[in-house]
Design the sequence.
């Protein structure tokens, strides 16, 4: 097996110092052209790869960040991961995925990885901290953590998010504009802030239009497809079922539409459905899902950029970074049936 090329090998070939090669390959900005291009070109030709272990010993950093989510199988996170990874790689960091499945013990394991130096920072997307007294001060205090999308109040972390209340209100106003009066809302887990904000947007739109929210019209879900099916079935066991349903995420919305078909109801002819997220499957679904589109790649980029600022000693932003949403009107909403 050929010996792995080293910095000194590149330096000897080009007749420069090892320090000059090291500075060029670390993007220090201290090496001028044409030397910079010559070093990088030869490094590619020799298939030079940095010795990460040695670099980490020098810098006392793992050069890795954790992105912790509820369910790694949810396609919602893929576009966010793209944005995180692109920004992280450009700065020399790798990205590790953490999958909690809402298990508090698993959540603690990922925070332990951060505390023990296996990662330098964390992008947290679970919407909550482990339920352990004193956890925030004992484990998390001072750690570089950015919360993306799902707000955690009173934790002091910087946030990247969307205006969930306004986005939900806009979605329900679309249904009201189509003449729907009996509009139900399947929420995410309450009392998590994101779920509460989306439910508040639903309630505010209904109240502004002078519409009542009947008992049973606000079932609480967990963002999973089979839950959408189950809660939809319950809605259509009510004496006056809805003619429209605003669902807190696309995955549950898919479950709702599947159940409506099983019940023999046409979407959108008899029941309109609006989701939230704009998964890549939402446009390919039949009929294509009307949904609130979140700028997921931009969310990932913004969260990682904020984390890099923290890692370089920057101050924690006092206000969250708010990114815009768009209501994508497609094929699952139509005027209320006569």
Sequence:
């Amino acid at each position: 097996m050929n010996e792995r090329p080293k910095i000194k090998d590149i330096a000897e070939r080009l007749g420069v110092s090892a320090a000059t090669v090291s500075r060029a390959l670390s993007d220090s900005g201290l090496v001028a052209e044409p030397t910079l291009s010559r070093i990088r070109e030869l490094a590619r030709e020799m298939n030079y790869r940095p010795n990460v272990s040695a670099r980490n010993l020098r810098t006392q950093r793992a050069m890795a960040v954790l992105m912790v989510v509820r369910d790694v199988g949810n396609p919602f996170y893929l576009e966010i991961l793209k944005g995180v990874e692109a920004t992280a790689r450009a700065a020399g960091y790798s990205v590790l995925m953490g999958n909690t499945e809402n298990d508090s013990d698993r959540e603690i394991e990922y925070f332990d990885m951060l505390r023990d130096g296996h990662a330098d920072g964390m992008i947290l997307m679970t919407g909550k901290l482990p339920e352990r007294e004193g956890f925030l001060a004992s484990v998390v205090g001072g750690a570089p953590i950015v919360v993306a999308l799902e707000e955690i109040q009173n934790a002091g972390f910087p946030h990247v998010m969307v205006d969930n209340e306004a986005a939900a209100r806009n979605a329900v106003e679309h249904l009201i504009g189509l003449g729907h009066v009996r509009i139900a809302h399947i929420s995410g887990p309450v009392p998590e802030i994101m779920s509460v904000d989306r439910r508040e947007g639903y309630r505010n739109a209904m109240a502004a239009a002078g519409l009542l929210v009947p008992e049973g019209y606000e079932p609480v879900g967990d963002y999973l497809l089979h839950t959408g099916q189950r809660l939809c079935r319950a809605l259509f066991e009510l004496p006056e079922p809805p003619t429209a349903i605003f669902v807190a995420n696309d995955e549950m919305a898919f479950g709702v539409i599947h159940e409506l078909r099983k019940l023999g109801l046409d979407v959108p002819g008899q029941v309109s459905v609006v989701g939230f997220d704009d998964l890549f499957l939402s446009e390919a679904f039949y009929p294509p899902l009307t949904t609130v589109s979140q700028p997921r790649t931009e969310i990932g980029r913004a969260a990682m950029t904020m984390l890099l600022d923290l890692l370089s000693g920057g101050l924690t932003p006092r206000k969250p970074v708010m990114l815009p949403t768009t209501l994508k009107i497609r094929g699952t909403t139509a005027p209320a049936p006569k």
Notes: The longest strand covers residues 64-69. The chain has 13 helices and eleven strands. The mean pLDDT is 89. Residues 188 and 195 are 5 Å apart (CA to CA).
